[in-house]
Amino acid sequence: MMIQPDRQKGPDFQVLEGIDFLPVNRLALPNGIDVSLIEAGSQDVTKIDWVFPSGAVQAGKPLLASTVGNLMLEGTHTRSSAEISDIIDFYGAFLNVQTFHHISVVTLVCLTKELPELLPLVEDVVRNASFDEKEFSIYLNKRRQEFILDSEKVRTIAARQFGSVIFGDDHPYGRQLELAHFDTLTRDELVAFHQKAYTPLGCRIVVAGQPGMDIIPLLTRYFGATEWLPGSVNLNGVGKIQTSSEKFHLTNREGALQSAIRIGRPLFNNTHVDYIPLQVVNTLLGGYFGSRLMTSVREEKGLTYGIGSSILSYPKSGMWVIASEVMGEMRPAAVEAIFDEMRRMMVEPIDENELEVVRNYMLGELLRQFDGPFSTSDIYRTLWEFGLDFDYYGQMVEVVKNITPQQIMALSVKYLKPEDFHVVVAGK
Prior knowledge:
This protein is an alpha+beta fold. It has helices at about 55-60, 65-70, 80-90, 115-130, 135-150, 155-165, 180-185, 185-195, 215-225, 275-285, 290-300, 330-345, 350-370, 375-385, 390-400, 405-415, and strands at about 25-30, 35-40, 45-50, 95-100, 105-110, 205-210, 250, 260-265, 305-315, 315-325, 420-425. Strands 1-2-6-3-5-4 form a six-stranded mixed beta sheet, sandwiched between helices. Strands 7-11-8-10-9 form a five-stranded mixed beta sheet, sandwiched between helices. β9 (about 305-315) and β10 (about 315-325) form a beta hairpin. One of its GO terms (molecular function) is metal ion binding.
């Protein structure tokens, strides 16, 4: 007999006690490459990330690292761009390269049974990218046009200037791409950086899903060779940030209907003792749809369609940023409304009901982030970059569950003073 559910009654409410993290097995290939295995899931699908110390910091020059990453898929010494695309399409796979400040990540997602056919392709792409002059020219011209078009958008202008204001023009986190960089980048620079950075030195491999019993022999065969030269990456380093002494920055754009606003301050990264509790403060302020800023600036005052706040963590620093776009004439009122909400958090204890909503939202988001081996591997890879492990999220659960209104107010007094924040506006 089929039991009909009672649709008048919702599911039982449960409080998250903790997160059951998937186990991670670690080993090393013959050439020293660190391999982490997160074996879980019900489907015979595998995701592999090759993490290389080949980001913008190591490149030391805007455009260089991202161009190398993107052009690796545009041909090797034995395969053309079309041949690489055909192989990926034939096996229904996904192959991509992403470049960040300190790392670049080559990602393969495919059916496990296709790994013997696709790992040789990834090896070829990683080790033998040719950087064909024609492909280089096509790519550079495309990026140049995209850059020119983006440079007309107030959102882009504000975002670029904000990084420079917070970190300084010469800091790798604040250094901005300029049109002149497209004229100075050469193919020889691409080849040299690729040969130094895409090597076993500093490389890590993260495998997630159901990779099968042969995964280690396969990785050893194609990526564990001792004759693969180790490289000599120039880490370049990250110096002290040089935050602007000016608190207000306006870039006028004639004819702009809207103003893009960035309000923020330099901060520490996620290794700092206050970082996790500040995530609760940030969520209350502007980190979800029911936040203070959304309620006040958007719904009550009608000054913007959307506004959000986030704390960004980098290996050597961090920042707090509030972002929105408003009609030009409403910009002063919007900025003041944002500061009003910051001041209110400094002097008024958070109501327990409001805090409970935020707790439930944050804990639910944590569970969602660890839903399956692929998302878990992404989090694991990020934690590794900061020298952390899954205990970090165990600590986050405890902080979110136990933080008090008094602690939130004390943190707001310490970190939300409007005079510590910079305002960057592009538009009017």
